[in-house]
Amino acid sequence: MAYVVVDNCIMCKYMDCVEVCPVDCFYEGENMLVINPDECIDCGVCEPECPAEAIKPDTEPDLEKWLALNAEYAQLWPNVTIKRDAMPQAKEHDGREGKLEAFFSKNPGQGD
């Protein structure tokens, strides 16, 4: 089992989760984070830290596409272990529907 980042992270990218992760398994895209499921130790400390509630255990139903997306982009994006500010429009986008189709960027983020 692992945790995965889901659509509500897109355009928010709160980074509270990265500073509590004991195994540094977060990877940064231009407008969201992902968790490498092969590195995640299922400790769960990141889940309550996310203000957008965008981190879920992969045992929840209908998360297969998110597990695949996290696994794919964790191989392509840089590792991030330091917290930076959320995206400027985070509050505006928090809870918005359809963010994967409308806003997801394949571009890498800054990383450490």
TrEMBL record:
The keyword Iron-sulfur applies. InterPro entries: 4Fe4S_Fe-S-bd, 4Fe4S_Fe_S_CS, 7Fe_ferredoxin, Fd_C, FdxA, RnfB_subfamily. Its cofactor is [3Fe-4S] cluster; [4Fe-4S] cluster. Keywords: 3Fe-4S, 4Fe-4S, Electron transport, Iron, Iron-sulfur, Metal-binding, Repeat, Transport. Transmembrane segments: none annotated. Residues 87-112 are annotated as: Disordered. PROSITE patterns: 4FE4S_FER_1, 4FE4S_FER_2. It comes from the Bacteria. Residues 87-100 have a biased composition (Basic and acidic residues). One of its GO terms (molecular function) is 3 iron, 4 sulfur cluster binding. NCBIfam families: FdxA_Protbact (NF045490). Ferredoxins are iron-sulfur proteins that transfer electrons in a wide variety of metabolic reactions. This is Ferredoxin.
